[in-house]
TrEMBL record, chains A, B:
PROSITE patterns in the cross-refs: FAD_PCMH
Name of one Pfam family that matches: FAD_binding_4
Catalytic class of the enzyme: oxidoreductase
BP term (GO), one: lactate catabolic process
Needed cofactors: FAD
EC number: 1.1.2.4
Gene3D superfamilies tied to this protein: 3.30.465.10, 3.30.70.2740, Vanillyl-alcohol Oxidase, Chain A, domain 4
Record's protein name: D-lactate dehydrogenase (cytochrome)
Organism of origin: Methyloraptor flagellatus
Keywords from the UniProt entry: FAD, Flavoprotein, Oxidoreductase, Transit peptide
FAD-binding PCMH-type domain segment(s): 48-225
Gene Ontology molecular function: any one: D-lactate dehydrogenase (NAD+) activity
Similarity remark: Belongs to the FAD-binding oxidoreductase/transferase type 4 family.
Length: 468, 468
């Protein structure tokens, strides 16, 4: 297999007609300039860029509807675009078509403080939402790293460091509105916290990566800002010891808000980049949310568990500045990797396994990294069994690319063999399509294809992603 | 509109052939006796019973597959059956067909204590599962009242008193296996805690009420048994005061495990039935799970909030026997209603609204009960905005049935007008079908129909439920 996306047929005539009609309808809101098109088809993987034929900047649901109706009439693909931070080629246009940029649909429409929810447009980013919420005592916890649009986060079922306590976009999205393949608008659910009224369309759209509809509104769960936030770090002799501490923490019901692992290679990289002097050994970073007494209790319990598992010393604090210092190693992960080998590109991939298999999976992966002779640090949202590997690749070295592709393939099959998944949070896009049948089996894939066909019979919604 | 289910065409010849073939295949495991058929088509609503033509007692996934393949070959409907405790006519056979009883598929296949999950057959009941888990320090929290089969609970997206803290079956089911319309078996997900690998088939099957497939295996999330359980009760002058206390409790981030409301009429009924002397005023019952310090802190905070909202006195305890006493009013709700008017039948219905609208919705409903001149106490899982009304009906009095039907219709439209849902946890079955379009809109209903058609083109899986 290869990471290169399969070629798709282009409906050249239909696309040309659709773009011409869209130009008449959207005037200055449509661009066919190469720079803008390249930016909208960009990918953070090595999958070759496949840029769209035009970009429509939609400002309202009605405009998204118009754009989709025009495109649908001429069988021209449409690809929704938020902030362009997806990682698996989600925004590529393998069959050409039009990128629909919703970044200007960025209004927070309602904040329902009593119900702990809000209604937003899809272009709102997570940081912008939290900025708006600042004075309400509430916050939106899901943090995938990038300041992604919430529409994009819903589309890829994003999660991140806080998911162990607050869940993923699967749990955070209460309802949404989407423009479907024929340009009509569907509302998936009500604002009630739970419902048993029919098929769960909300959860079906979350994670559908633009292949079933284009989101135009999201209702999201919010949480009260914790009274106190505690942070801690602890070094462990082995990944196994750290993973054991994670398992015991979760089993004990300690409602840890974040629990992140850096492997030895990643610790070396942040030491080098941030001039830290952390022991060159696996590191766990934890965060606790709650009342003063609650956080103190959680932190003490975790410290005891860490010591029982051979970790230490455990440093903890609730003082904001000290917290940032303790967590600096985690915050600097990205830049430490990017700067570790100038000229190389960091390619992020992720898998997720049951936490009982986490140590085994990470150890085998670290051994594979060493054997393969690549630079690929590991950092994990280990409370969920989810970890990232970021191989550094010279984009102009086909041999190295092939080596890393083969490594990722082994990583995925290793996770699948441990009852895991080929992606915990990055999504399928083009990069993980090849693994879906091995993960889910042909029967499940057949049902996914039928859903796609039922929702989008002409295959115009982000074609060539998830299933074909 | 009427609560009576719409008539459906029967494929008499096909059903007769299927039953004959099934008899050859299943021998003593199939029954056509009237008593057994009646029991398997039974309904706890007033929807007329529509009994199946035969009942197959399946003992394995392979047997479910065989039964479905034979039925499918002759376009004979199949209706999965667990314990028969559903409330909206889910088990009726409006087009005839075969009930597939999976209650003998009741093995706990694996308990993965380190991962806090287990793999079970669908006929395991929630109490049986917790019995098996007893020595592991883990428990399965979802408690809809009845000792339902977990397959049935997944099929109706059940929840109950603990959902405010532990979620519903939507969150509890990590993966499942189902026999689909052509008799093949699909596995929906892996045992990893999260995944972004394609459409969320798990959530699509959860709540599908047997219309998309028959569950043969479930992977469920488990939780650590709390170190300490605290309980409390508090009387409030009005439903509004009680609801305000609920809202503040949730907003404050108190991880309340249960928070239940009894309205004045319900309090009167339990006083009468259980010889209690509770003030005849709305009552909140709460439960807290955690460490000793955590539970004490939660209970104190709740007591302060309750007092601020005009409630009191607040009685609380962590002593098991005292806890049972405090909660007796809640435990006796069912029998207090059943015994309130001998000869009448209690018909349970439920709706769910955003909690900011809860007081208004319950007050208007209680006023409607009084005006209509029926007996219909209210009890609610109010932390989720979900409440039950249990009108007492003389099944032989068509005028009273009509009166209660009209009352339920008003209740549903009242909840919908407040951004709520026609059912928070009982499901659609036949009883709530008429409201789905008003709740979701024609576009969403059309997508649900397309999903049903894509999964079950011949409409043999529990036909006449959810959407037709």
């Amino acid at each position: 297999m290869t990471m290169t996306a399969p070629p798709m047929l282009r409906n050249d005539a239909g696309i040309a007609t659709a773009v011409a009609v869209l130009k008449q309808r959207f005037g200055e809101q449509i661009s066919t300039g190469e720079a803008i098109r390249t930016q909208h088809g960009h990918t953070l993987t090595w999958i070759p860029n496949q840029i769209p034929d035009a970009v429509v900047f939609a400002r309202s649901e009605a405009e998204v509807q118009d754009a989709v109706k025009i495109a649908a009439a001429h069988r021209c693909p449409v690809i929704p675009f938020g902030t362009g931070t997806s990682l698996e080629g989600h925004l590529n246009a393998p069959a050409g078509g039009v990128s629909i940029d919703v970044s200007q649909m960025n209004r927070v429409l309602r904040v329902n403080a009593e119900d702990l929810d809000c209604v937003i447009e899809p272009g709102v980013t997570r940081k912008a939402l939290n900025e708006t919420l600042r004075d309400t005592g509430l916050f939106f916890p899901i943090d995938p790293g990038a300041d992604a649009s919430l529409g994009g986060m819903a589309a890829t079922r994003a999660s991140g460091t806080n998911a162990v306590r607050y869940g993923t976009m699967r749990e955070a999205v209460m309802a949404l509105r989407a423009v479907t393949a024929d340009g009509s608008v569907v509302t998936t659910s009500r604002r009630a916290k739970k419902s048993a009224a029919g098929y769960d369309l909300t959860r079906l759209f979350v994670g559908s990566e633009g292949t079933l509809g284009i989101f135009t509104e999201l209702t999201l769960r919010l949480f009260g800002i914790p009274e106190v936030i505690g942070a801690g770090v602890c070094t462990f002799p082995t990944v196994k010891a750290a993973a054991d501490a994670v398992i015991l923490t979760i089993q004990s019901g300690i409602p840890v808000a974040r629990i992140e692992l850096l492997d030895t290679l990643q610790v070396k990289m942040v030491n080098a980049y941030s001039k830290l002097t952390l022991p060159e050994s696996p590191l766990l970073l934890v965060e606790f949310h709650g009342t003063a007494a609650g956080v103190a209790e959680q932190s003490t319990l975790f410290g005891e568990i860490a010591a029982d598992c051979g970790g230490g010393p455990y440093q903890a604090t609730t003082e904001p500045e000290q917290r940032s210092k303790l967590w600096q190693a985690r915050h600097d992960v990205y830049w430490s990797v990017v700067n570790a080998a100038p000229g190389k590109r960091a390619v992020a991939t992720d898998v997720c396994v049951p936490i009982s298999r986490l140590a085994e999976c990470i150890d085998a992966t670290a051994a594979d990294v060493a054997e393969t002779g690549i630079l690929a640090p590991i950092v994990g949202h280990v409370g969920d069994g989810n970890f990232h590997v970021q191989p550094l690749v010279d984009p102009n070295d086909p041999a190295e690319i092939a080596k890393v592709e083969a490594f990722i393939e082994r990583l995925v099959y290793r996770a699948l063999a441990m009852e895991g998944t080929c992606t915990g949070e990055h999504g399928v896009g083009q990069g993980k399509m090849a693994y879906l049948e091995a993960e889910h089996g042909p029967e499940a894939l057949e049902l996914m294809r039928r859903i796609k066909k039922a929702f989008d019979p002409d295959d115009i919604l982000n074609p060539g992603k998830i299933v074909i």
